[in-house]
Amino acid sequence: MHSSNTKLIRFNKIPKTAFLLSLALLTLLLTACYPDHNQSTFDPQGPVALKQLEVFWWILIGGFIVFVLVEAALIYAIFKFRVKNESDIPVQTQGNHKLEIIWTAIPAVLLIILMVPTIQTLFYMYEAPKTTKPEHTLEAIGHQWWFEVRYPDPTNSEKEIVTANEVYIPVGYPVAINLESVDVIHSFWVPKLAGKTDMVPSEGNFMWFQADEPGEYYGQCAEYCGTSHANMKFKVIAVPEPDFKSWLQAQSNPALESSDPLVQEGAGVFKSAGCTGCHSIKTVVNKGSKGRVGPNLAHVGSRRDLAAGMLRNSDENGSVNDALLQKNLRTWLENPAEVKPGNLMSSGAQVYTNPDKKLTEEQISQLVHYLSSLK
Amino acid sequence: MSTFPISIPRPVHPTGIWNWITTIDHKRIGILYGVTAFIMFLSGGIEATLMRLQLAGPELDIVSAAVYNQLFTMHGTTMIFLAVMPLSAAFFNFVIPLQIGARDVAFPRLNAFSYWTFLGGALMLKLSWIGGATDAGWFGYAPLTSVAQNPGTGIDFWIISLQVLGIASLAASFNFIVTIINMRAPGMTMMRLPLFTWMSFLTAILLVLAFPVITVALIELTFDRYFMFNFFNVANGGSVVLWQHLFWVFGHPEVYILILPAMGIVSEVLPVFSKKPLFGYKTVVLAGAIIAFMGWMVWSHHMFTVGLGAVANAVFTVTTMLIAVPTGIKVFNWIGTIWGGSIRFNTPMLFSLGFIAMFLLGGISGVMHAVSAHDAQQQDTYFVPAHIHYVLFGGAIMAILSGIFYWFPKYSGKMYSERQGKISFWLIMLGQNVTFFPMHFVGLDGMPRRIYTYVEGMGWEFWNGVSTGGVFILIIGFLLVVVNIGRHWKNGEPAPADPWDARTLEWSIPSPPPEYNFEKIPIVRSLDDWWETKQGLDYKEVPASGGSGNEGHEIHLPQPSYWPIVAAFGLFIAAYGVVFNDLLIPWALAAVGLTIGFIGVYSWSLEPVNDPEEDSTN
């Protein structure tokens, strides 16, 4: 693992029994009742999250010891010095300089020791390894309430490939992420890969992480960002590098056209109902272009979730289930405010605000077929 | 009298409701503060209960997303500005003059004005529920507070009521600073001040320095909202991070504003019920002063994930960890105080001991936040509400409850039921741990805070359910406190002057104290002077005339006044008008309010010192 070759003091140097005891206790408490802990900070899957957890063990164990000692002293005093005779007057001790100096110095020394790994890790977090490849640099942009993700186009350095709410990364490589926001402050957080970094409008931010194993990692907006803050999620999908490359290639090509008449009609509704005002079905979109208000839909039919992690389209193994996808698209199109209260589409799109332009049952079916065909 | 244009004489010995409206007696104002703030505390508790019900299980639909967001914003704002701060102010009012041997505060009418202004601000904030309260969080991060994001009046109510509350707090703080510096009894040097008065003094200084920062930030926000300024509008070159700096430069000292009075209360209660002086008085005072000073150097630890860079985060890591040292000193000195004592477990003592036990836990999780590398995982998760509730509930509220029971005989003149008090302590102790401890688990398990719902299968269901269950234990505990206090205030056994065999001056006078507090001003010769007196040291007093030789002189007390409430009422009306800034009528309302306020202040300044019928000016 990445951490083994660093200078950082690792947690195997911490007294083993205390470590194991705390670990057992915490594991018990955290996992006692439910098996899925998709956002647990105790299950790091990459070097950044691991380093952060390692430094946390220091204070967790140290804090536990301090807590036990001080509470023990308190409880001992409570039992030992309880009143025996109402009229007794104990010795009126005013204080003890030596003692006070000792209990000032000990915490100060302990805290100064704690600063060392903390600050080391801080600098480690803030700078991506020099080996980070330029093609592994991507951009995540917060919107109310979804994430836009942009990759450099491998075939054309002028252009960027756009997707939404799914961050594909290559396994075993550090990935650099530039963070932005178009409206309010959001925060980009994948607990198993790294701590969060805020997405601050007009103040670009930066973070990096690496996934050591292929798989799906849950992420969620962590900075309160308005009505549907709770409904702003995403996933990081780590795949072997060749797969990552072919995925990126596929993303840069438009979805395969379908001759299904329902799909064709759906494409017509997509234009006539005004969807294109906010959503683009082009794969390569520059920032200045229109169609960035809503998530890019070029490959919406291939995504594992709909509506920023709200509706699951895929099976356990991550492959999209068409029946599920169509059901979810229908749920979403019928009443987006039900899925995500306050979202811009339900409050801004004419098909939802003007009863005369309301989508018919037929139009919704056509749109569902069209959108699910965008693989 | 001839210069006074509005010839309304000063109220003379008013009774009933007028007595409360015109009072400038610090003890009555203290009671007004306490009762109002306790009601506000209960209202914040109702808001919290609704939130906990919504989160009891996954995907519940008890309140909507919009209402939930208003609930957590109002809960935070209420508990900080309308509950904990004014509960501390209640103790400042009631206790400080008694502890320093004074007959009232330095500016009694200003004191009444502070209370009525606070009441106006509190009502204004709470009334914003009608028509939709603010939902931008108690921290009000830009640009969620912009007109584009939040066009309703909820935010304006929040801004303007905080400004009104700021006026109340500033007026009160200046009053207490002047009182503590100028009105101490002879011999009461600064290093003989009771610890509670010391901590209150530091709090008042912090308030005077911290509130202007939030005032400026709120004015900037008002200008952004009302006059299309661009302080926080990034589209035109503003900065949203600016707001965070301003807010936390205020907000972190504010944390110490909330906790220092609590530390003061505990530092009074522990020595009394251990029958020992405070261990290391000077150290505890110094530690408090260091906390108050260092509290200004740590604000960016609220912003570790904002992207200030590794160097800035490292600096604030160091300062934040260091501020744990003086806090630790206090905890050790409190344990030193009870060590070797003769401990009596009355209700106030139980709450103070509970404070130490719980505050320690909050302090340790605070150091965990200071480990900034891992704070990136903790920030904005339930780990932070867990911490803040151990500090503010396990800390501040436990100490305030301790104070409520400790001084109950003094302010009510009655004794509460010790049995009910002890039961309520154990219920609250159990309830808070069941409610708040599981938040550590779900936080580290990745549950963000301020989410109105969560899905099944994240591992958060169980502990959220437990957390909600704990609320009901707390509710029973607090109902018992209300019943105990309410019933015994009316029907309790009469309290002796010094039921606890206490150490400070307020226990040397009858319970409840007469209006003039001290018939004769005591002369203070040592720390814990009243205790020393009881141990046989000669008691000395200054005669009522203050030693001027005119021994037949009556005790000279300021008299009630109509004008503080009038001035505060004008401010309230004006503030209400300003909130609805887009119409002519509200601005007219604001003008009327300002006029009333002006009349209030004008009449107040020209009011005769004493009523003409009581011939005491010669």
Give the SSE map:
The complex is a heterodimer of chains A (375) and B (618).
Chain A: H1 16-31, H2 47-80, H3 97-126, E1 137-143, E2 146-152, E3 160-164, E4 166-170, E5 175-181, E6 186-190, E7 194-199, E8 205-209, E9 215-220, E10 233-239, H4 241-252, H5 261-272, E11 305-306, E12 311-312, H6 322-334, H7 336-339, H8 344-348, H9 350-353, H10 361-373
Parallel strand pairs in A: 1-5, 4-10
Antiparallel strand pairs in A: 1-2, 2-3, 5-8, 6-7, 9-10, 11-12
Helix pairs in contact in A: 2-3, 5-10, 6-10
Chain B: H1 16-22, H2 26-54, H3 65-99, H4 108-127, H5 154-182, H6 195-227, H7 240-274, H8 281-294, H9 310-322, H10 324-338, H11 347-370, H12 372-378, H13 383-406, H14 408-412, H15 418-444, H16 461-491, E1 521-522, H17 529-534, E2 541-542, H18 563-579, H19 584-606
Antiparallel strand pairs in B: 1-2
In short:
Chain A is an alpha+beta fold and 375 residues long. Chain A has helices at 16-31, 47-80, 97-126, 241-252, 261-272, 322-334, 336-339, 344-348, 350-353, 361-373, and strands at residues 137-143, 146-152, 160-164, 166-170, 175-181, 186-190, 194-199, 205-209, 215-220, 233-239, 305-306, 311-312.
What does this structure look like?
The complex is a heterodimer of chains A (375) and B (618). Chain A is α+β, with helices and mostly antiparallel strands and 375 residues long. Chain A has 3 domains: 2-126, Helix Hairpins (Orthogonal Bundle), CATH 1.10.287.90; 134-250, Immunoglobulin-like; 261-373, Cytochrome Bc1 Complex, Chain D, domain 2, CATH 1.10.760.10. Chain A has helices at residues 16-31, 47-80, 97-126, 241-252, 261-272, 322-334, 336-339, 344-348, 350-353, 361-373, and strands at residues 137-143, 146-152, 160-164, 166-170, 175-181, 186-190, 194-199, 205-209, 215-220, 233-239, 305-306, 311-312. Chain A has a 5-stranded mixed β-sheet. Chain A is elongated, with a radius of gyration of 27 Å. Chain A starts with 15 loop residues before the first helix and ends with a helix. The model of chain A is unreliable at 1-13 (pLDDT under 50). Chain B has one domain: Cytochrome C Oxidase, Chain A. Chain B is globular. Chain B has helices at residues 16-22, 26-54, 65-99, 108-127, 154-182, 195-227, 240-274, 281-294, 310-322, 324-338, 347-370, 372-378, 383-406, 408-412, 418-444, 461-491, 529-534, 563-579, 584-606, and strands at residues 521-522, 541-542. In chain B, 59% of the residues are buried. Chain B has a two-stranded antiparallel ribbon with strand order 1-2. The two termini of chain B are 15 Å apart. In chain B, helix 2 (26-54) packs antiparallel against helix 3 and helix 4 (108-127) packs antiparallel against helix 5. Chains A and B meet through helix 1, helix 2, helix 3 and strand 7 of A and helix 3, helix 7, helix 8, helix 9 and helix 10 of B.
